[in-house]
Amino acid sequence: MSGVGRLHRALFPSVARYCLAHAACPVPAVPSSPLENDLASVHRRISLRMPLDARELTDGRP
Fold first, then answer.
1. Which pLDDT band holds residue 1 (cuts at 50, 70, 90)?
2. What is the count of structural domains for the chain?
3. Among 5, 13, 17, 56, whose Cα sits 20 to 30 Å from the Cα of 23?
4. Distance spanning both ends of the chain, measured CA to CA
5. Buried b (16+ CB within 10 A) or exposed e, 36-48
6. 52 with 46: CB under 8 angstroms?
7. Which of 59, 17, 61, 16 is nearest to 35 (CA)?
8. What is the distance between the alpha carbons of residues 52 and 62, in angstroms, rounded to a whole number?
9. Residue 43 belongs to what domain range?
10. Digit-coded pLDDT (tens) for 10-60
11. Burial class of residue 27 (count of CB atoms within 10 Å of its CB; 0-12, 13-18, 19+)
């Protein structure tokens, strides 16, 4: 975990973390999908008009 991430969380705590910490009843916490970072990367590449190869999405699998 990087120091920047810790600093960001300290300055901008999430609503979800607040709700989990202050809930009066048990609340299940579901982690984000491992594919979320890959999807964000694809969105960035598209928004920057960078070329995107489908092989990058499948780790070189046909």
1. very low
2. 1
3. 5
4. 33
5. eeeeeeeeeeeee
6. yes
7. 59
8. 15
9. 3-59
10. 677 778 888 888 899 998 888 878 788 788 888 888 888 888 777 766 765
11. exposed
